[in-house]
Amino acid sequence: MTAGLPSVAIVGRPNVGKSTLFNRIVGEQAAIVEDRPGVTRDRKTLEAEWLGVRFDVIDTGGWLPTGGELENKVSRQVEAAVREATLVLFVVDASTGITDEDESVAVWLRRIDKPVLLVANKADNLRRETEMWEFLRLGCGDPVPVSALHGRRAGDLLDEVIARLPQVETVDDDVLTDEFGEPIDLGGAKPPRVAIVGRPNVGKSTLFNRLVGEDRSVVHDLAGTTRDAIDTLVETEDGPVVFVDTAGMRRKSRIDDSAEYYSMVRALRAVDESDIALLVIDATEGVTGQDQRLAERVDASGCPVVVLLNKWDLLDDAEQRADITSQVADKLAFVGDSPVLKISARSGKGVHKLLPVLQEAIEQYHKRVPTRDVNRVLAAAQQKQPGPHGAKVMYALQGANDPPTFTLFVNKELPPAYVRYLERSLRDAFGFGAAPIKLRFRRRAE
Ligand code: GDP
Ligand code: GDP
């Protein structure tokens, strides 16, 4: 058992298929399976993984609510497993319906304050699946059908399982400390990390100072993780934000070409550690080739982008304004639905709109969509426009967030145009805005 992993305990009366399910989940024949009550008596724990989420699975063996010595012992072990567990899979047998023993288990589980997922096993075919609604009567929530033996719907069950496990934080969750090593209390809020990137002289430092210099905001220098990198925590009216040090922004002295180059390299590295990037463009110069390359690099890091057209105060000609707007649409098309803001860092005009847009973009990045909604949207999209040559998505789910990543189970390879159509459907339905979304494909027989 790996310390710190969430654990999933499989419970239920004997012979419902707990060991079979355990094996199915851990993907190997690790527990002893036998068609006789109470054979797998020992608690067994193995590590499992689904879509990158790791957890321990505990097979609890038989659970007999009444009777002699042995049964008491088994049930103590089960109690222990359940007490330690993050989630309990309560397994029932869809081929037999509810028994008295199932009811006793249900009563016992309802008393224990743990999240329970009711699993209707041996749902080997559709008919059994439709009958499983009987199990609602147990008062343990909606039964999830599965056939542990044949693997039918095992993926769906695992989706349900990981959706109920606590999200493992990928970002360093240490307490923030200031430059004196004193902890900074943000009342539990976890500030998003923001990188400001752009070519030299587009106005990054001016913007940074503007954001940091706003009235009523509290500014802390954070203890740097790398030598001479100093991140800045700003407590704003819209919540705390960490501006990742993108070199030169703060103490800009004279910068020669090579220093400029290294500050760019470092800025891009900062993007990889950020939740969002602000791409600053000098509106008086339009979108240059260098802006495009920078944007491509930021986009490739999977980081959502907000495009800032700075120095807007210098554009007084309507034609010039229209021109830069269309340049963004043409030359930065790949950043898709990223918000584009017109600002003047120098005068502060438009800068107040930035923080709310940032917060929203960050939320989209962390968003999770329930599996049934993903499938509903894809089914509708496919009905409207079926895939070419019988290609179709049979099932899909959001396997990860940060950025939102969808796994699509397909019968054959989908052509790129159709992939873009499906991606667009998901985007429109769930409003991912600036967040880049990723699609992964798995082939599966029909
Ligand atoms: P446990 O006592 O709850 O651990 O149950 P086991 O995993 O030992 O399974 C009991 C019996 O049910 C075995 O014969 C399994 O092969 C069978 N079984 C388990 N899962 C399924 C299933 O999904 N469908 C069918 N038809 N039989 C299953
Ligand atoms: P950086 O190299 O991207 O950090 O750019 P700076 O913040 O140093 O700005 C470069 C020059 O552009 C400075 O002279 C700024 O005063 C000027 N500048 C920055 N933002 C604006 C703006 O919104 N409007 C105008 N007119 N000038 C700006």
**Low-confidence segments:** 28-43, 168-173, 224-228, 247-257
Strand arrangement across the biggest beta sheet: 8-9-10-7-11-12-13
Instruction: Please give the number of β-strands.
Output: 16
Beta percentage is 15-25%
Instruction: Please tell me what the overall shape is.
Output: elongated
Structural class determined from secondary elements: alpha/beta
Main sheet overview: 7 strands, mixed
Give the names of the bound compounds: guanosine-5'-diphosphate
In quaternary terms, these chains amount to: single chain
**What is the overall pLDDT average?**
78
Distance N to C terminus: 36 Å
Radius of gyration: 27 Å
**Helicity range:** 25-40%
SSE topology string: EHEEHEHEHEHEHEEEHEHEHEHHEEHE
The number of distinct helices, counting runs of at least 4 residues, comes to 12
Description:
The protein is of the alpha/beta class and 446 residues long. 33% of the residues lie in helices and 20% in strands. The chain contains twelve helices and 16 strands. The strands form three sheets. Strands 8-9-10-7-11-12-13 form a seven-stranded mixed β-sheet, sandwiched between helices. A six-stranded mixed β-sheet has the order 2-3-1-4-5-6, with helices on both faces. A hairpin with a 2-residue loop joins strand 9 and strand 10. Helix 11 (371-384) crosses helix 12. The longest helix is centred in the first third of the chain and has 16 residues, at 69-84. The protein starts with 6 loop residues before the first strand and ends with a strand. 37% of the residues are buried. The structure holds guanosine-5'-diphosphate (2 copies). One guanosine-5'-diphosphate (GDP) is lined by residues 198, 200-206, 249, 310-311, 313-314, 344-346. The site of one guanosine-5'-diphosphate (GDP) has 16 residues, from helix 6.
